[in-house]
Automatic annotation (TrEMBL):
<comment type="pathway">
    <text>Cofactor biosynthesis; molybdopterin biosynthesis.</text>
</comment>
<comment type="similarity">
    <text>Belongs to the MoaE family.</text>
</comment>
<dbReference type="GO" id="GO:0030366">
    <property type="term" value="F:molybdopterin synthase activity"/>
</dbReference>
<comment type="subunit">
    <text>Heterotetramer of 2 MoaD subunits and 2 MoaE subunits. Also stable as homodimer. The enzyme changes between these two forms during catalysis.</text>
</comment>
<dbReference type="Pfam" id="PF02391">
    <property type="entry name" value="MoaE"/>
</dbReference>
<dbReference type="InterPro" id="IPR036563">
    <property type="entry name" value="MoaE_sf"/>
</dbReference>
<protein>
    <recommendedName>
        <fullName>Molybdopterin synthase catalytic subunit</fullName>
        <ecNumber>2.8.1.12</ecNumber>
    </recommendedName>
</protein>
<keyword id="KW-0501">Molybdenum cofactor biosynthesis</keyword>
<dbReference type="GO" id="GO:0006777">
    <property type="term" value="P:Mo-molybdopterin cofactor biosynthetic process"/>
</dbReference>
<dbReference type="InterPro" id="IPR003448">
    <property type="entry name" value="Mopterin_biosynth_MoaE"/>
</dbReference>
<keyword id="KW-0808">Transferase</keyword>
Length: 158
């Protein structure tokens, strides 16, 4: 885990091998000087649709070059703090198998106003998927697997 704290902001970046305890993170972006807390939970969904094909998902499995991934997440968090004038940021990503209904990534940030928080969450997740060396493999109920590469924008077919 990486925690960087200054007088004006806090940044928590973590990679974990087990379930993410979301409740324990909720207070990490709290501050009497902020008016907006924004959260994103990336959760394994039951169905994956690509084009005309829908498969039942059993789990997602994540692998990473851990030191490099932590370093990139820290850079990403620091840039978001500065660019979006955030007060606090939390990024936690899970590695290993993530069953349906469980979170693989949790992102939280706070700022004085909601627009910065909304924009920051979207930018952070898009950049994380593109730039951080974490790889995802989907395992389906029929036993087949597929490595999934990030695309510019998640839509209904990803």
């Amino acid at each position: 885990m990486s925690v960087a704290e200054t007088e004006s902001s806090k940044m928590i970046v973590r990679i974990t091998d087990g379930p993410i305890n979301i409740e324990s993170l909720l207070t990490d972006v709290g501050d009497p000087d902020v008016g907006a807390h924004g959260w994103f939970f990336g959760v394994t969904r039951r169905k994956t649709t690509r084009g005309d094909t829908t498969k039942i998902t059993q789990s997602l499995s994540y692998e990473a070059h851990r030191p490099m991934a932590i370093s990139e997440l820290e850079k990403l968090a620091a840039k978001a703090l500065a660019d979006f004038q955030l007060k606090h940021i939390v990024i936690v990503h899970r590695l290993g198998d993530v069953p349906v209904g469980q979170a693989s990534v949790v992102l939280g940030c706070s700022s004085a106003h909601r627009v910065a928080t909304f924009r920051a969450n979207e930018w952070i997740m898009n950049t994380l998927k593109q730039d951080v060396p974490i790889w995802k493999r989907e395992t389906y109920s029929d036993g087949s697997t597929q490595w999934v590469h990030p695309i510019e924008s998640d839509g209904p077919t990803s």
